[in-house]
Structures are given as C-alpha cells and as structure tokens.
Amino acid sequence: MLAYHSVILEAYRAALADWAVKEIDGREIDQSLIHHTAALASIWANEAVTEKHVVDVIDTLH
Fold first, then answer.
1. pTM for the whole thing?
2. Given phi > 0 = left and psi -120 to 50 = alpha, else beta, which region is 20?
C-alpha cells in the first residue's frame, strides 16, 4: 500500500481540515479521523484503502 502513500497523506490532510473535535458517527475521535481518511483515499485511489493502511502510513510520519 506504500504505492498510495501520498494519496493517503493528502486524504489525511483533507480529513484534518474538515475534522471537528467531537465524535463523528459514534466513533472515538481518532478512529473517525482514520475512517474518513481511508474512505477519502479509497475514492481518490479508486482502490480499497483500509484503516490499517492509513495507520501504517501515519506511523511513518513519527
């Protein structure tokens, strides 16, 4: 999934821009951000991007 590394990072930035500090869809705050990032990256990549893929990419930032 590293082929979509930049797509996931851009989706993460977009999700952060729209993210409010509250629960969305009844999920924990961090989990909803990851979920929305995965959904957005999947749309942009036209391929399934899982929440695990998002977490793996975000972990590379630290």
1. 0.71
2. beta
